[in-house]
């Protein structure tokens, strides 16, 4: 007797929580799905093939080739953030204070995946800390990174057209207002996350998992959990150098081919730093990144 052949269906991961996933099928139907093995390397935004295993449930059988994968890593493990995104939106705020090194690391990660990137400066209605936040972002503005000042509590109209046609992922530290932004852009977001939390039994929702929301047929937004660190252990030394656009005119100009740009004589990067062409804080972040991945 032949075993019953299960029909494969295609869908998109719209929420990832541990080894449980919410999959949206082409019809719009939502299923709770699991992976077959213990190890899970599925990310929010992944396009997958599933086989139904029961009422409203399924098993993930395959992941389609990805256009991009944003993830962070340390020496021991990697943490997937989102797949198939085309734009990273780094959310910072006038308060609480933010880490410019985290921004640098996000930019290096974006560069490694060839993704568009934009910094959103939230809470701009708070005038007192605004100048300080803008000064902290000045080195990124000088590099040509687009910075959009806004207040998610007042209006997100300036942001909407910049999302069109993209699958964007919001990344940033906790407290920067990513969820407020999401709720302003996606009116049903709170209801949807509540529903996902109940379906995946993940309790109270404080963005402990990434969630994808569709704004229209061509546009999607992924809200991700707050980051306190962004390890890039998976990048090579060359990949890290290329992630700093201000280094590029000087790469290959050092006396030594394998120059680490630390104390070597006739180092083009150190000379550019001396001339004020490279921001000292960015250079210090580069050295820390290099040391981590050595």
UniProtKB/TrEMBL annotation:
- Cofactor(s) needed for function: Zn(2+)
Keyword GTP-binding present in the record's keywords: the answer is yes
Which keywords fit this entry according to its UniProt record? Cytoplasm, GTP-binding, Hydrolase, Metal-binding, Nucleotide-binding, Ribosome biogenesis, RNA-binding, rRNA-binding, Zinc
Ranges of residues in domain EngC GTPase? 83-228
Q: Where does GTP bind?
A: 122-125, 172-180
Where it sits in the cell: the answer is:
Cytoplasm
Q: What class of enzyme is it?
A: hydrolase
GO cellular component, alphabetical, reads: cytoplasm
InterPro entries per UniProt: G_CP_dom (IPR030378), NA-bd_OB-fold (IPR012340), P-loop_NTPase (IPR027417), Ribosome_biogen_GTPase_RsgA (IPR004881), RsgA_GTPase_dom (IPR010914), RsgA_N (IPR031944)
Chief location category: cytoplasm
Family the UniProt entry places it in: Belongs to the TRAFAC class YlqF/YawG GTPase family. RsgA subfamily.
Assembly and partners? Monomer. Associates with 30S ribosomal subunit, binds 16S rRNA.
- The name this protein goes by in its record: Small ribosomal subunit biogenesis GTPase RsgA
Organism source for this protein?
Propionivibrio dicarboxylicus
Q: Report the gene name.
A: rsgA
């Amino acid at each position: 007797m032949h075993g019953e052949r299960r029909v494969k269906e295609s869908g998109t991961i719209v929420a990832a929580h541990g080894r449980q996933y919410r999959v949206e099928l082409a019809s719009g139907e939502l299923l709770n799905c699991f992976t077959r093995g213990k190890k899970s390397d599925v990310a929010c935004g992944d396009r997958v093939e599933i086989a139904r295993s029961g009422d409203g449930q399924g098993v993930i059988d395959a992941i389609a080739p990805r256009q991009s994968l944003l993830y962070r890593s340390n020496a021991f493990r990697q943490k997937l953030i989102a797949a198939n995104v085309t734009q990273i939106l780094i959310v910072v705020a006038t308060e609480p204070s933010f880490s410019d090194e985290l921004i640098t690391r996000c930019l290096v990660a974006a560069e490694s995946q060839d993704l568009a990137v934009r910094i959103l400066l939230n809470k701009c209605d708070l005038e007192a800390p605004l100048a300080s936040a803008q000064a902290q972002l000045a080195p990124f503005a000088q590099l040509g990174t687009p910075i959009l000042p806004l207040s998610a509590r007042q209006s997100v109209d300036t942001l909407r057209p910049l999302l069109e046609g993209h699958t964007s992922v919001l990344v940033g530290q906790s407290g920067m207002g990513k969820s407020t932004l999401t709720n302003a852009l996606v009116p049903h977001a709170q209801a949807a996350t509540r529903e996902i939390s109940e379906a995946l039994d993940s309790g109270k929702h404080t963005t402990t998992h990434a969630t994808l929301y569709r704004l229209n047929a061509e546009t999607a937004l992924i809200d991700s959990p707050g980051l306190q660190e962004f390890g890039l252990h998976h990048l090579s030394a060359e990949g890290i150098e290329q992630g700093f656009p201000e280094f590029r005119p000087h790469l290959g100009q050092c006396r030594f081919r394998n120059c680490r740009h630390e104390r070597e004589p006739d180092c083009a990067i150190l000379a550019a730093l001396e001339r004020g062409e490279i921001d000292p804080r960015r250079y210090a972040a580069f050295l820390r990144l290099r040391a981590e991945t050595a």
